[in-house]
Each structure stands twice: as C-alpha cells, then as structure tokens.
Amino acid sequence: MINKEKKMHNKKTMELVKKVVIYVILSIISIIWLFPFVYIIMQSFSKEFNDSSFLPAGGFTFQNYVNLFTSTTYPFWRWFLNTLIIAIITCIFQTIIVLMTSYAFSRLRFKSRKALMKLMLIIGMFPGFLSMICIYFILDLIGLTGSIFGLILVYIAGSAMNYYIAKGFFDTIPKSLDEAAMIDGATKNTVFWKIILPLSKPIVVYTILMAFTAPWGDFMLASYITQGHSELFNVAVGLQGMLTLGNINQNFPTFCAGGVFTSIPIVILFFCLQRYYVEGVTGGAVKG
Question: Which of 35, 111, 177, 260 has the most CB atoms around it within 10 Å of its CB?
Fold first, then answer.
C-alpha cells in the first residue's frame, strides 16, 4: 500500500512538473510572439523614432494618428478605403464560391470528382506568386492592370481551391437530412440554402474570416498589379511606401500608427467571431 501511494504521489508530482514546464514554455513563446506588436503600438505614440528604445521617444502623442488622415503626401484614408472595398467584395464572392464548391464535392457524385479534388489540392500547394507574371499579362490584355477590380478578380478566381475545410465540415452533416428534404420535394439548391447553410454557421464564419483577411494584408500581388498607381494602393503597399518617401526617423512612428489602425478591424472581427472560427476549423478537420 505504501509503495502504491508513493508511486501515485510520484506520478502526480511528475504530471504537475510537466504542466508547469509546458506553461512556462508557452508563456515565453507568447511573450516573444507579442513583443513586435507591443513595440509597434508603443512606437505609434512616439514623438520621434529611436531604435534603441522600447518606450516612446520624446513622450506620448496622438499626432501620428492625426497625420494619417491629414497628410497630403500619403493618402492613408484612400488606401484604407481601397482595402475595405477589395476585402468586402472578395469576401462576399469568395465565400459563396467556396461554400457551393464544398457542398458539390461533399454531396454530389459525378465523374472525375476525386481526380478534380486531388488536382485542385496539388495546384493549391504551389505559391501564388509563381503565376504573377502570367496574371499580369492576362489582366493587361483585358485592360485591368492598375485597377482594384483586376486585383479583386484575381482574388476571386482561385476561390474554389479552398474547398477542403468546408467540405470536411459538410461531410459531418448527416445526409439523411438531404434525403428527407428531397422526399418532400426540395431541390438540391433548396437543400443547400435552407437546410445545410443554417446548420453550418461555424464554417460559414470561418470562410468569411479567411476570405476577408487574405486580401486585407496582401502585399506582393497588390504591389505588382497596382504598381505606379499610388491612389489604388491597399494599406500594406501604401504603408511600405511611406518608409521610402523620406527619412525613416520621421515616417516610422506614423507608419506604426497606420499598422495599429489597420489591425483594429481584424482584431474586432476575430474577437466577435472567435467561437465560430474555432468550431469551423475543428469541424472541418474531422472528415475529408
């Protein structure tokens, strides 16, 4: 009995030690991960740039945020509006395309279905910037270079390849619901819009978040398509350009203020929809 109690005590002690070590490691990782964000926030309130100081140099000021919307050198408000328009339009169309494609792969059985799914997964493994030159020439042929609508078209065009998470979620919904509805005279279109989607709020929210955040922070493709048209920049391209307009010591605090202001909508969106986001990811990972 004494030996068993010692073993149980040692086991509990070891489990406690493991938990403490894990929590310490996770805390250290969290601090390292949060450090750049805290640094940017602190510098956004700085009167002047000082790379050797973590705290705002020269004291706190809100002038950097005022400069964002009053400066005539860089139209931040225009960049922000461009980003918002691109993100909203892309979000609407991409969400619809992804969900409809996922439903088709989950519920319908047609020739070459599995081959098409595998092909889309393989193509999706290649980074998008490999096709940038080809995309630019195609947009140039139809007169959409230097246009935010050309950028929106590119974001929407490959939406169907993001089907796998939503399809996995739809696979967890019993097919008996579809069959019961079709016995009552419902079409597949009716089943999708009035039965499947109301039961799929987590994956719908997840798809919306992914479709909204991707163009919001895109830099490479946006800078390539809108190059030479500063009034069409999104915030990522515009803010990067601020650091090349003059002395970095003058522009960096305002640059940080722009980064903080740009992140606010995404942070609010994630906090409000966090519960559905987690459910959507875990639900979509159950079946493939």
Answer: 260
Which of the four CATH numbers 3.40.50.620, 1.10.3720.10, 3.40.50.1820, 2.40.30.260 does domain 75-284 have? Answer: 1.10.3720.10
Query: What are the pLDDT digits (tens) for 148-191?
Result: 888 899 899 888 888 888 888 888 888 888 888 888 888 888 88
Spans of all domains in the chain: 2-63, 75-284
CB 178 within 8 A of CB 187: no
H-state helical runs in the chain: 2-44, 63-70, 76-107, 113-124, 132-141, 148-157, 164-171, 176-183, 188-191, 201-216, 220-225, 235-242, 248-284
pTM comes to 0.81
CA distance 124 to 198: 28
Write the pLDDT tens digit of every residue in 202-243.
Answer: 888 888 888 998 888 888 888 888 877 778 888 988 888 888
Which residue blocks in 108-194 are alpha helix, DSSP H?
113-124, 132-141, 148-157, 164-171, 176-183, 188-191
Q: Which residues pair with 35 in a beta bridge?
A: none
